[in-house]
Design brief:
The chain is of the alpha+beta class. It has seven helices and nine strands, in the order ββββαββαβββααααα. About 25% of the residues lie in helices and about 25% in strands. It has a seven-stranded mixed barrel with strand order 1-2-6-9-8-7-5. It is extended, with a radius of gyration of 31 Å. The relative contact order is 0.11.
């Protein structure tokens, strides 16, 4: 087996202690199925080409340059050597700024994971850092220049080594308020909530990445195989969202209670802040009215 190639080499420093380390890619998409773009008429591959937006003429690679738009159609040209000079100089050191509780960072900030391992000398210092973090149950925040950008990195103990996750900057993480602004103010109570808890309890388990397969990759592979063999795949029915009126029955069936199961408690109140006391008044009035009506004898 070929030894993995390091993506970055440098030092990790905490206090006055430092040791050489290397970063290795922890997640890769290289094994995914890749498509080529073809000309439908000829079946030949097509190639991407940069053209001038005004003249329509092709622009060769050595004639292409970076530009920053300052006004509509007005650009500041940035030469490659100017961009390189503007990038902060890297001292190739992951300098730890602080140790924080492991669960303090929202994982929405996580960008890309890398394995962090000792490089040649300094393994004693590396193990000291790893075991110290494990014992204190903390992660480390460090900064360095990675791939021509200043990056903030979260470092955690991971097996025999460390795992370093680059973090998104605050301006890159969008607020959740916009995503959830149309969420209604609903309140779920009673049997519906009990059944949901029951179903969740039945489905409790532990995370095992090996049990999760890439269904998209498998489906595409099967489609390619079917095309080669000249057969078609059956069409799948699209899932249908449960209607509010059918939700209780769907929950009962999911819990294995069946269609004729008697609810343990009254059906749920789904409302916008209505209390149980207010909902109980019409029911109490109806019961009183029913008790005052004489029963008919069977003929």
């Amino acid at each position: 087996m070929v030894a993995p190639r390091a993506n970055w080499k440098g030092f990790i420093k905490f206090g006055e202690v430092s040791c050489p380390v290397a970063l290795y890619t922890a997640a890769s998409s290289s094994e995914r199925i890749a498509f080529n773009t073809l000309n439908r008429k000829t079946g030949n591959r097509v190639r991407r080409e940069f053209v001038d937006s005004e003249t329509g003429d092709p622009v060769e690679r050595d004639e292409q340059v970076k530009g920053y738009e300052v006004e509509n159609g007005q650009y500041i040209v940035l030469e490659p050597d100017e961009v390189a000079a503007a990038v902060p100089e890297s001292d190739k050191t992951l300098k730890i700024d602080a140790f924080i509780p492991c669960n303090e960072i929202d994982d929405v900030y996580f960008d890309k994971p890398y394995y962090l391992a000792p490089d040649r000398m300094g393994k004693d210092a590396f193990v000291l850092l790893r075991d110290g973090m494990k014992k204190a149950k903390v992660a480390a925040i460090a900064r360095t220049v990675l791939f021509r950008r200043m990056r903030t990195v979260l470092i955690r103990a991971h097996g025999k080594g460390l795992i370093a996750s680059t973090l998104n900057f605050d301006y890159e993480v969008r607020s959740s308020e916009k995503a959830f602004e149309e969420m209604p103010d609903l309140k779920i109570e009673g049997e519906m909530l009990d059944l949901a808890e029951h179903i969740i309890g039945k489905k409790k388990g532990s995370f095992d990445a090996s049990t999760f397969d890439d269904r998209y990759e498998a489906a595409v592979a099967e489609l390619v195989k079917a095309k080669i063999e000249g057969r078609s795949l059956p069409k799948k029915k699209a899932p249908v969202a449960s209607k509010p009126s059918d939700l209780l029955q769907a929950l009962r069936e999911s819990a294995g209670l069946g269609a004729k199961a008697e609810p343990k408690r009254a059906a749920a109140n789904v409302n916008k802040g209505t209390s149980r006391q207010k909902a109980a008044k019409p029911a109490a009035a109806a019961k009183s009215k029913a008790g005052s009506t004489p029963a008919r004898r069977a003929s």
